[in-house]
Amino acid sequence: MPTGLAGQHDSRTAVLNAEAAERLLAAYAGGEPAEPVIERHPAADVSDAYAIQRAQVVRWIAAGDQVAGYKVGLTSRAMQLQSNVDQPDYGHLMRSMFAPEHVPIPATMFIQPRVEPEVAFVLSRPLRGPGVTIADAVCAIDCLLPALEIIDSRIRDWRITIVDTIADNASSGAVVLGGRPVSPRAIDLRLAGCVLYRNGEIAATGVGGAVLGSPLNSLTWLANTLGPLGVTLEAGHVVLTGSMTRATPVAPGDRVSASFAGLGSVSVQFAPEQQEAAR
Amino acid sequence: MTSQGVWTPEVVADLLLTAESSRTPVGSVTGRWPDFDLAAAYRTQDVGMKRRTARGERVVGVKLGLTSPAKQRQMQVDTPSVAWLTDAMELPPATVVPRSRLIHPRAEPEIVFVLGEELAGPGVTAARAMHAVSAVLGGIEIIDSRYSGFRFTLPDVIADNNSSSRYVTGSVQVNPDGFDLALEGCLLEVDGQVVDSATGAAVLGNPAHALAFAANQLAERGHALQPGWVVLTGGLTEAVPLAPGSHIAAHFSHLGSVVIKAD
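Structure tokens for the assembled complex are given below, as produced in the milestone run.
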């Protein structure tokens, strides 16, 4: 292809990427979901999707937010089969996405929220790939915290392909961390059990090994994926490693909690409808 | 099928035992005899057990089925079911499952209890039930419906001894005291690949409830759980097909690993 045409193609793609980012930002602002990215940008690939994601992160940073860590998604075989991929994906965790435990969250903050139980790693020192091993990863972890990730999609009815979810910050919504830190030396994460409860009923169960064989594999994958892009995981960053169970949908007034063997529990309360109406 | 005729528990039990021994699945019993109800199904299951003991098998315990909300919804029931295990169903550890003698086997990981004393309903609570447990083990159950395509109604599957076929228990025996059964995790692998995971909470919230349910339900049928019996408490995950030559491994948090291979 002559360079002139290639340049034209690149600039056309850049415009389509920028437009997709704007539509997703508008969905956050208006609470109305967007149509799938690939409808107006059918040629978008995974690298375009990450470019669309980064464009939104840049806007959030410009508005005063900060990157506090990352989430790894599509970590279970079931999710990878469903998305027809053999790799996980990642999204950015912004400071504004961290919600405290024991304070009701308005469900209206989200478009179509679901909750997933995960192990969060808090890093004590920088970690940068490529070449990060499990041993490097373990040594860079300060502590583990039980976590609930509230996932959400700015794409209508969760009609997402891999490109759509990556473009939409890996369907991130919010994070609630439990308060009891545990040493990575104290637990066999692969076989640690997890029970997810919604309104007192068991919604799902699973173990850490459902996450890429072990949640530690999520951290090494993330460090080794970000490194070549010039991104370092920093001390203090939080890494959400991926869901141990299938996600449970939530509605206003719901209470969701997760118990983890060796890690304790974490819960989130969504504000009831009338409280939201009064806002 | 010969005639529409009349069913008796003996006729249905023999039909299902023949299907098992000849590896020839049959159509639904309730499809043929719509008045075949739950009471008839349990009578049939008990006749089947008597047929097995008459040919030399010994009852070594029971298994529970329909313990997960998903399966209960699928079968439109709100209680589990209980069926018999005999010594002929037990396979040694790290065994080759004789798939060639089965119809369309599936495997599911389970938490297994061994009883140290008799446990007789009615009125057995989960706490009372656990008092009778001497050891907790991991296990894999092989289920193999005698109905074509696993297509059955609730009375059908109960008459078919809840699709019981074979089972394997692990080599780690854990004292139940101070053991959190609800958070005991299990990672299921097929041919080295993680396919599913769950914890004990997937079984009626806690396998202790499954044991109590079994004791109470058997009391209604005139039986009590005996010392030394094993109780397979119910599938932790969905059952996975046991393909020819496949390896299935269930790795438990505290109950070791149970591995089987299909021939």
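Residues 109 and 140 of chain B are 4 Å apart (CA to CA). Helices of chain B lie at 9-22, 29-32, 38-54, 69-75, 126-131, 154-159, 207-220. Further analysis is deferred to the final report.
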